[in-house]
Each structure stands twice: as structure tokens, then as C-alpha cells.
């Protein structure tokens, strides 16, 4: 018998006055799954996460978290969740360790257990050497790792991460991905929102692409790429030439041609053959890049625009 989903939503709607932020979505998240919401700002990701974290009740639809109803069991559900909000809200008046031990007390964890748990978590997020430091001097990446450590202090069954690496430099992002991957390997259920497509590919077993409050596609990163894109993409740059005019001359090469402001994308099963055909037609791009398709290509196909910060 299959396991019951930890998160179950049907026809989930969230309205703010006349504005519909989430417009009738269906979600199931299985135990141990890393599940992602991918989309641009304003797509409805954060509003969905606020409903799942029981800080905002649905306007319409059915929502069950850990088999319970947020409307009547919100406090009990929140006690079994770990939440990493979009913006760090650490206490600057407390040390790194105290941010964890103080937070642990909200869950009724004894002081000895809180100190033990804090030390374990600081080791896990590679902040043990900063345990006695104040929060303010920490780098953005360190603060983010501490926020994730705090989300783990109550040994949650589900960890919710709202755009966990926004604003971090590449090194900090990759270190955070490594920590989240370790949690995933331990069987922890992760639910995250992101507008970084490489992040979704790295971390998510399955994801939904949201746009305008609705789910426009769902599946594993690989299955979405296979369904909505081609195996390879050729990126062509032509200097100062008008790309819209050049795109017409590329018609019929590959399955699809998309002109962007700075380059033209040719979607094809064989990038080398497509490049050869470009030159055969007498076109002379200033640069040619053949690469595999990514989730960005999926999003371009589904919404006609790139994801933005």
C-alpha cells in the first residue's frame, strides 16, 4: 500500500482582495521527497508555502499537512515543520549558538538537549567554529546556513525552504546545496521554492512550474526537459545584426527557433548538424555554443520569457 502524502492539496486557492495569488492547484508530496516550486516572482510560490506552513489559511480548496487540517490543527502541524523563510530573521542580540538554543525552547526541548542539538547542527552546517560569535558579522551564506540549522532544531518531518539561496554568491550557494543534499540523502522531506533553474535541477526529485498562480507543468527535472524541450540547444550570437530578421533565415533548422534580446536559440536533436546547416545557409554567427537543454529552456517554452530575480 503506497504511503500517504505528507502534503496533499486539491483546488488550492489564495486570494488577497481581488487578486488571486494561487489559482486552484493540486499537489502531493511524498515522504522523503525533495519537491520544488519553480517560477518567477509573483508566480504564487511563496503564497503556497505560507499556506503549507500554516501561517496563511487557504481561501478555497482542500489542504492536508501530515494528515491534518491547518484550519483546526495549525499549531500541531507547525510543531512538526522546519521553516527557512525567504529573508533571514535571526536575532542579532544572540550568539550563533543561542539563536538555536533559544529557538529550541519554543518547542519544549530541554536546555541540555537544546545545547546538544545546537552543537550537532552547527557542525552539520559548518558553523561550529562560530558558535560564540554574534550574528551580524556573519556573511550572507553563513546566516543562511544558520537559518537552516534553526529550522532543523525540532527534528522536523518536513523542511520548507523559501528561495533558500537568493542573494548568495556562487560558492555560498554550492555549499548550501551540499548541506541540503545531505539532508535529502538522510530521507528528510524537503519542499522548496526557487527561481533558479540550476537549483531546481540540483535539488528536486520532482517539481511544478508555476506561472500566474497556476501549475503549468509537473514532473522530474529530466522528464520536464524531455517533454518540453529537445536534447540539445544551439546558442547563436550575431553581434549587432537584428536577431528578429535573422531568426526567419533559420526557420526549419531543428524543432524550434527562439530569438532572445542577445542571441538566438535553436532547439534540435543534433546540435552539430544544426550548426553545419546554419553555415550552409551563409549565416556567420560571431559565436556558437552547443549545449544540453535545461529547465530554463522548459520555462521559455512554457511562458515565453526567462526567469528573473
UniProtKB/TrEMBL annotation:
InterPro entries: AAA+_ATPase, ABC_transporter-like_ATP-bd, ABC_transporter-like_CS, ABC_transporter_ATP-binding, P-loop_NTPase. It holds the Pfam family ABC_tran. This is ATP-binding cassette domain-containing protein. SMART domains: AAA (SM00382). It is a peripheral membrane protein. Residues 7-237 form the ABC transporter domain. It comes from Sphaerisporangium flaviroseum. It is found in: Cell membrane.
